[in-house]
Specification:
It is built from ten helices and twelve strands. It is of the alpha+beta class.
Length: 274
């Protein structure tokens, strides 16, 4: 793996400029890539938490098995995502993870994360932000599963994926690949596969969504967002700039106390001295 091919380095560089040392630290998370097949289980729920992983190719999902034999899919992971961060503070997995399609994942340990925490305030803030955003996605999922119609659930999920894929260059002019079966979509949305199929048919008749196997076209993405009552605040990529302020980082690593108002953008050092 090199810097040009690193999905996680590219993701972090969307938020800030990285030093060469920080790039190397991130690259260490992808030093052990392995090829995986569609349907492969990365880990089972309730298994011991001993590793995390990044995904550089393919799609994956986290899930919980329910008592009636059904499965609830909690989150879909795309290239560049870190999987398992929510388990960091637990001894056993809160959810299982499986591959949607063949791909490449790289496992890394707690020690790798602790090394980042020791050496880079910016990367630590970025990792914390990633964990917070993953929780925000789950919260939004809870809201629309509980309070939205079947059409709104599917519309919300499709528009969310359209935005997420667009940020990694995998969606263009309303078109993107969606390698999910109707059964998997049902497990995501709390619907039967038949209901998912009927909803896609209704969307096609209304000119909102065109689906051809794993290819999806949104003729009018904003109309779909309006139907879903979509509020994209939880997908906002704007991490506070202070987290990546090198002067602030130097003071933090040196153990100095700095007033946040002294590091506000546009505030001169002379003014701070006054």
């Amino acid at each position: 793996m090199n810097l040009q091919d690193s999905a996680i380095v590219q993701q972090f560089q969307q938020h800030c400029s990285l030093t060469e040392e920080e790039k190397v630290l991130l690259l260490e998370l992808e030093q052990n890539p392995i090829k995986v097949n569609a349907g492969d289980i990365i880990w089972q729920e309730n298994s011991k938490v001993d590793q995390f992983c990044t995904i550089s190719q393919g799609w994956a999902y986290s899930f919980r098995n329910l008592g009636d034999g059904s499965r609830q899919i909690l989150k879909v992971y795309l290239p560049g995502d870190i999987i398992g961060m929510r388990d960091f503070a637990f001894s056993n997995r809160l959810a299982g993870v499986a591959m949607i399609e063949e791909g490449v994942v790289s496992h890394f340990s707690h020690e790798h994360l602790l090394k980042i925490f020791r050496h880079s305030t910016a990367l630590t803030a970025g990792l914390f932000a990633i964990a917070c955003r993953q929780q925000a996605v789950l919260t939004e999922r809870l809201i629309y599963l509980a309070r939205r119609t079947a059409q709104q659930r599917l519309a919300h999920f499709l528009y969310e994926m359209y935005l997420r894929l667009g940020r990694i260059g995998a969606a263009d002019e309303g078109r993107f690949r969606l390698p999910l079966s109707q059964e998997q979509l049902g497990d995501i949305l709390g619907l039967s596969a038949v209901h998912v199929s009927r909803t896609f048919t209704a969307f096609r008749e209304e000119g909102l969504v065109l689906r051809d196997r794993h290819r999806v076209t949104l003729p009018d993405p904003e109309a779909l967002a309006q139907l879903a009552e979509f509020d994209g605040g939880y997908l906002n990529d704007a991490v506070p700039a202070l987290f990546f302020d090198r002067e602030w980082q130097s003071h933090m690593l040196a153990g100095a106390t700095v007033r946040s108002e002294d590091l506000m953008p546009g505030k001169s050092k002379a003014a701070s001295a006054d």
